[in-house]
Amino acid sequence: MTDIQDTDPAEASAKAATLVESLPWLRRFRDQIVVIKYGGNAMVSEELQDAFAADIAYLNYVGAKPVVVHGGGPQISNMLDRLAIPSEFKGGYRVTSTEAISVVRMVLTGQINPQLVAKINAHGPLATGLSGEDAGLFGGRRRGVVIDGVEHDLGRVGDVAEVDPQPILDHLAAGRIPVVSSIAPDLDNPGHSLNVNADAAAAALAVALKATKLVVLTDVPGLYADWPNRESLVSHLTSTELRELMPRLESGMIPKMQACLDAVTGGVETAAIIDGRVPHSVLVEIFTTKGIGTEVVA
């Protein structure tokens, strides 16, 4: 019996062209550390979770060294609502009470982290879960936020003040994909934890690991120079240009762009914010010429 070929030659050629386009990027990122901050809308859709996990597994299989840092804003908000614990944001940061930090920790380290590890491990025994509290990975210090010149207290919220990259490097050397939840021990209050902004944590870790690239998933197509003007999407800018734009940005975008700025000024070659609502946006950003979203360079 003769097999009938049902492959469309044009479609096959298009697929081959995509693979060939990725060749220089495969070469560039082989054996290089790429830190990906995962969060927002990409977390709450099952389809997007699966696509993200496949992207991370793909990166590992083609020889890159992905490290995932995740937050969990939507899930934390849902759990706080269910438990009737008040929650508010100031300057793009969640105000975190002593009562709320236990919920934050439970959701990040006990719920989201193992779920994401399991999704990635559906593609092979690759991922391992970590908290910023494990093996001295992060050390945090409390911070406030300045709004209109006035300092506001954020409660149990901190910055990553110290990073020991060795636990991550050990996992990478063993061929594993570290998946890190953004909780840090309070250096000034032993035995207590801090809710650390995941964008900032990813940037600090990228710098400590001497990563080649930081990728931040968000829920918009990228940085708009003149929001809400949809025509003002910026595809590429320098750290100097970004500093000039920062005072005009929306509060929710400030931590993400500050993370990109901190990364490239700390030695990371490039940082990008991309739309996590687009399936496989991580692969499009890393392995295509045009990429997706907004890229920042020093």
TrEMBL record:
It comes from Microbacterium fluvii. InterPro entries: AceGlu_kinase-like_sf, AcgluKinase_fam, ArgB, Asp/Glu/Uridylate_kinase, Glu/AcGlu_kinase, NAGK-C. It is an enzyme of class 2 (transferase). It catalyses: N-acetyl-L-glutamate + ATP = N-acetyl-L-glutamyl 5-phosphate + ADP. Belongs to the acetylglutamate kinase family. ArgB subfamily. GO terms for molecular function: acetylglutamate kinase activity. The record marks K37, K256 as: Transition state stabilizer. Pathway: Amino-acid biosynthesis; L-arginine biosynthesis; N(2)-acetyl-L-ornithine from L-glutamate: step 2/4. Its EC number is 2.7.2.8. Keywords: Amino-acid biosynthesis, Arginine biosynthesis, ATP-binding, Cytoplasm, Kinase, Nucleotide-binding, Transferase. Residues 33-275 form the Aspartate/glutamate/uridylate kinase domain. This is Acetylglutamate kinase. PANTHER family: N-ACETYLGLUTAMATE SYNTHASE, N-ACETYLGLUTAMATE SYNTHASE, MITOCHONDRIAL. Catalyzes the ATP-dependent phosphorylation of N-acetyl-L-glutamate. It comes from the Bacteria. It is found in: Cytoplasm. Its main location: cytoplasm. Substrate binds at G72, G73, R94, N195.
